[in-house]
Amino acid sequence: MQIEALETLLHIQCSTAPYKDAAHLPLYLRSSYALYQVRAGQIVFLTAQPIEDIPLSTLRKHWAALSKQSGLPCAFSFDILTSYKKEKLVEAGIPFIIGTTQVFLPFLGVALSARTRELPEQVTKCSMLTQKFLLTALYQQIRQASAAQLADLLGVSRMSGTRCMDEIQVLFPALVQRNGRRRVFAWNDTWKAYWTLIKPGLRSPVVREYRLDEPVGSSLPLSGISAVSHYSMLDEGHTHVYGITKTLAADMKLSQRPQVPADEIPAVIVQVLGYKLPFQNDLAVDPLTAILSLTPEEREDPRVAGAIQEIEEDCLP
């Protein structure tokens, strides 16, 4: 393993040595991989580089066995890897390192957070501003951006752009690379794999919800289940759900309007969202935000799950 390349990718000091307890592993594991123990910051983990080509289904089983037998987080190490295998490993949450260019090591988030300015030590979800950038990058297919370019794109200060880059580095280290002395957001794989990578770190964009007992007078973009229905073949039901910004919610004085209890059916539901992405003709919020604005109960409905899959297939080239 090239430790200098790993340090460059992770931006933290690393050291590596042959795994000293390999003899205690089952023969089928120690004969199939070159095993190394890596220290990255305060985190120690095991890397396993296949000696020969191993099928994906076997990799999954071996990863679980290596993690359990060693008692350490385990990551596979590859010189090269097909896009299909890489996508499936990301979907399964299996960490990996590819040559000197890519890492997917989600268990390092806490260690990296110690190096990040003004971020909570246990950050697990990105802020609304960072989420807005990540989705914008997907829709506009932005392959590379510096913190300054990121700030200009979002229309915020350079400091805010740097904070977004900090969050991305903590939550999605595979998306941050060094370009000389600068950190840059960078992605060179499929956008489907990108969505699979970032989705676990995204949050619901809904910061408040108003369940009103009478219709709103103005035309608002659809949100929540109504927006999902707009982008798919799903039947949304009778209650329309709309999405608006905090500023518009204040202008409409929604907090002063009569609302219905949670166990009653409202005339309309208005979701106040933490960000807004311009999309098509503003009939609905953007499709991926629509998915994220669903409640856990709604996502469990098989019909809704099918609609989500339909939307993702349409949005992710």
Describe this protein with a few key phrases.
six-stranded mixed β-sheet, alpha/beta, elongated, three-stranded antiparallel β-sheet, 317 residues
Outline of this structure?
By secondary structure, this protein is α/β, with parallel strands linked by helices.
Structure commentary:
The protein has 317 residues and is an alpha/beta fold. 39% of the residues lie in helices and 20% in strands. It is built from 14 helices and 12 strands. The chain has helices spanning 3-10, 27-30, 56-70, 83-92, 109-113, 128-140, 147-154, 158-171, 191-198, 224-230, 246-251, 287-292, 296-300, 302-315; strands at residues 14-18, 33-40, 43-50, 74-78, 96-98, 102-104, 144-146, 176-179, 182-186, 206-212, 240-244, 268-273. The chain has a 6-stranded mixed β-sheet, with helices on both faces. Strands 7-9-8 form a 3-stranded antiparallel β-sheet. A 3-stranded mixed β-sheet has the order 10-12-11. The longest helix is centred in the N-terminal third of the chain and has 15 residues, at 56-70. The radius of gyration is 22 Å and the shape is elongated. The two termini are 33 Å apart. Residues 110-121 have low confidence and may be disordered.
Shape field = elongated
Low-pLDDT stretches are: 110-121
Q: Structural class of the helix and strand makeup?
A: alpha/beta
pLDDT averaged over residues: 86
The total of beta strands comes to: 12
Order of helices and strands: HEHEEHEHEEHHEHHEEHEHEHEHHH
Give the helix proportion (percent range).
25-40%
Q: Which band does the percent of strand residues land in?
A: 15-25%
Order of strands, widest sheet: 1-2-3-4-5-6
